[in-house]
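Appendix B. Raw example, untouched.
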Amino acid sequence: MEHANANNDGKHVHDSHSHHEHEMHHHAMNEGHDMHSHTRVTHDHMNHTGHEGHDHAGGHLGHMSHMGNLKQKFWISLIITIPIILLSTFMGERLPLQFSFPGSDWVVLVLSSVLFFYGGTPFLKGAKMELKEKNPAMMTLISMGITVAYIYSVYAFISNHFFHAAGHRMDFFWELATLIVIMLLGHWIEMRAVGNAGNALKKMAELLPGSAHLVDEHGNITDVDLKQIQIGQLLIVNAGEKIPTDGKIVEGNTTVNESMVTGEAKAVKKAVGDQVIGGAVNGNGTIKIEVTGTGESGFLAQVMKLVSEAQQEKSRSETLSDKVARALFYVAVTAGIIAFVVWFLITKNVDIALERLVTVLIIACPHALGLAIPLVVARSTSLGASNGLLIRNRVALEKSKKIAVVTMDKTGTLTEGDFRVSVVESLSDKWSNDEVLLLMASLESHSNHPLAVGILEEAEKREIRFPAPENVTVISGTGLSGTVEDKQLLIVKPAYLDQKKLPYDKNRYQELALRGNSVSYLIVDNEVAGIVAQGDEIKEEAKNTVDGLKRMQITPVMLTGDNEGYAKNVAAQVNITEVHAELLPQDKERLIQSWQNNGKPVMMVGDGVNDAPALARAEIGVAIGAGTDVAIDSADVVLVKSNPSDILHFFSLAKNTTRKMVQNLWWGAGYNIIAIPLAAGVLAPVGIVLSPAVGAVLMSISTIVVALNSMTLKLE
């Protein structure tokens, strides 16, 4: 995830310092190379004992904040349900193992009332929200079924026990109990499978410290709550501390690690006049900054605002099951009313007409429908997890078939995101490659510059031991000089060689530079002895991933904050033709919106805080597992292995999952296609009315088929 530094006006800021006087190439050190300290996905997204109901998906999932602890509700409701099943009838008939005793009807009434108001309340609240939005869906359908079942059953109980009406009125306490329990189970399974949405905004806020060291007009330093800091004030930031606000350095020099904010893993050298971003970590120097942005004007606050707005719009997404549920709701209500009217006109008996109406409305919410999607989602997420995919929002699975554009961040997504030594070459017969590295490591051993760190790490990797240098001096605009074992050494950038007219292979330099490398030369006793290149490497799977997307008729696009020349070079190597470079977070989000406005749904793949707005805005946000927590919490899917080819696996899994969802919904709804007309009495003239036995068989077959079909889901 790349970032072009920005001031509070949103304009690009270019560092004036020489970055340890090494050649940083035109993309510089601060325009790529994100490692994010390789923060892995360590969260247990599958363990949600208290927050199973939270999800930023739309439809009924978007209303799940009212469901509370689903695990607890399910188990308590199940305990209440068992005696209800044993003591009450199914559609007026007793099933095997059922029994009764004097007063058992009262026990059933009390337990059913407790169950309705405890286990059913979440669905009733959800229905209230859906109806308020004039968008009846799954919650409304479930609520209709359980409410009608409860109210009519209470009416039947009162009528049978107190008014002794002619004939025994059938109650639906059995249906009420099993419907509530199965629907709670289904939602719990689904919520456990997809995990919760996390809180990207909270994670962003935690990037800032709680207080700052304020310098008053007399030079006194006091610790002040961050909320009290105002633009124009002066702050002291000590070595190793988080920078509290956006600001401009007015005193001191340091290196700054901006990885948690911008994705730039390597420390960036900062001097007087340079901009710093709140949330970044100060390195080895103490600096004084003038506050340029805080509160709503700060860089991080602007990113948080973008994420929040995008999540709110995205929350309106609608699931396939919601669409089916809405259709069933309208069909059931219409069929029920018609059945009531027709039966009343024929029989002139309100009780008979009411019984038909109630039967239709209850049957309209079959048990199979409650399990149709959750079982598939549970199986899908399990398959995904075993293949490096963490599905955090199941709506992403349904949206995948509409994706027209896949936008990808460069660093960390298509490249390794690890700035390291890629080339060590001797340019003289006097020295081997390892000897060149030894001399350079020795001279760089007293430096904490990012390039120096890279060289020292490579020396350690090769187990090269080096002597201590002497007389090490920083040469302004050039590099380093010093003595190692009586040899006069220089580490310089190519401009120095041009200036001194020292011969070197310029084609080789251009080749390395265009690949995004920062190139340094070693001079030993006025002779060019060797070259070291440091840069990011393209992931092996990147090109195959891009080619795979093209075969699916999906357009791959690179979105990066990096230098345009380097970005295009990387894009060419992975076969991407459309590149947008030097982008700020709002630029990425704006581009995604433009595709969406043109009817092209977008998948965004990224790994850092400045990708978060784009991840939240896209139809499907995919975070790299080695990315920041903020990116992960903004995403719908996480590539745990940070392997871009898992994008193709996701599309394959999503295709198969969606197919199973449709199949299960047809089985669940198929029950209704048969049962609703029969319950309404369309075949009554020929003596066929849905009997309890037939209803039981249809409901059981539908549920069993849905369960078995879900288990056959595979990842091709």
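End of appendix B.
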